[in-house]
Amino acid sequence: MNDNHTHSPATRLVIFGRQGAGKGTQCNRIVEHYGVVHLSTGDMFRAARDAETELGRQVAPIMASGGLVSDELTIAIVRERLAEPDVRERGFVLDGFPRTPAQAAALLEMLGDDRLHAVLNLDVPLEEVTARMKARGREDDTDDGIAKRLALYDMQTVPTIEWFRERDLLVNIDGLGTEDEVTVRIFDAIDSVLAATP
Ligand code: AMP
């Protein structure tokens, strides 16, 4: 077979969801069920920051301010990670990446002939995630802080979600209901894409 046409059999996913939408729990279940690798750029940047690597020193002030790390740096770390054998073999669920349309375009370019199976948008209305975060009652969850963080997510991430929607890659998942109900919706969505994939 020609190298250009060898597709990896692994499952490749992206997940979007506001804070408080239950993305962490659902990611864990996706990892367990499909055997994919959880790839969180936030985790990668936090690890670099805590290890005080050169990258960590560059990103620490950006993260502290709530801003986004440059597309160049972010795309570079994802590109490296996607090339590693575990991710090639097992596939991935990307969490926190892409965050800009430029990152989204770079992801499709990196994948080449390997299909991105689904981009899941775990959809929980703003009022509901606000109520969940208030109920959680963490110290940094002041009403103002919660509103600001959620507004920042919408501002930064919605254009990227729209980018995927325009390309018919987005699968909207109703994130209301019990964790188990939401998991069933996610697995059904993934399974139907996999079944339709040659
Ligand atoms: P998270 O835990 O996903 O909210 O990520 C923590 C921080 O890491 C963010 O506030 C950004 O500063 C940075 N970060 C994570 N992912 C990205 C990304 N895809 N593009 C740019 N910056 C990112």
Please characterize this protein's 3D structure.
The chain has 198 residues and is of the alpha/beta class. The chain has one domain: Rossmann fold (3-Layer(aba) Sandwich). Helix content is 58%, strand content 14%. A 5-stranded parallel sheet has the order 2-3-1-4-5, with helices on both faces. The longest helix has 24 residues. The chain is globular, with a radius of gyration of 17 Å. Adenosine monophosphate binds next to helix 2 and helix 3.
Please write out the topology:
Blueprint: E1 11-17, H1 23-34, E2 37-40, H2 41-50, H3 54-65, H4 71-82, H5 85-90, E3 91-95, H6 101-111, E4 118-123, H7 126-136, H8 143-166, E5 170-174, H9 179-195
Parallel strand pairs: 1-3, 1-4, 2-3, 4-5
The site of adenosine monophosphate (AMP) has 15 residues, from α2 and α3.
Brief rundown of the structure:
The protein is built from nine helices and five strands; from the N terminus they run E-H-E-H-H-H-H-E-H-E-H-H-E-H.
**DSSP summary, beta strand count:** 5
Question: What's the overall average pLDDT, rounded?
Answer: 93
Ions, cofactors and other ligands present here are: adenosine monophosphate
Tally of individual domains: 1
CATH architecture: 3-Layer(aba) Sandwich
Q: pLDDT below 50 for ≥5 consecutive residues: which ranges? A: 1-5
Please identify which CATH superfamily we are dealing with.
P-loop containing nucleotide triphosphate hydrolases
Write down the secondary-structure element order: EHEHHHHEHEHHEH
Strand content: 5-15%
Strand order of the largest sheet: 2-3-1-4-5
